[in-house]
Fold this sequence. Notes:
Largest sheet: 2 strands, antiparallel
Strand order of the largest sheet: 1-2
Order of helices and strands: EHHEH
Distance between the termini: 40 Å
Strand content: 5-15%
Radius of gyration: 14 Å
Low-confidence stretches: none
Structural class: mainly alpha
Bound molecules: zinc ion
Mean pLDDT: 77
Shape: globular
Amino acid sequence: MDTVINIGRCAICGIESTESLTRLTAKGLQTLVDAAVKDDDDTLKHYLLSQQSASLSVHHSCRRQYTDTRNISKLSSDDDGPSAK
Ligand SMILES: [Zn+2]
């Protein structure tokens, strides 16, 4: 499977949309890698580390959400669980 993501597609959500993308700086890349490590997201971590920051773009909203530790959850889906009440 080819995992190449072209510029124009968000590195976090992988969705190609008309929403404006922010090009990652080296610092921004490191922040995302740290967040991926905390979130046990090996797929994203390896992907980020395999790329050059200059070739990575993300949605501003995705980066903000992903790097906000308050929003990091171990659950992949936390809004439709049977225990939600
Ligand atoms: Zn995105």
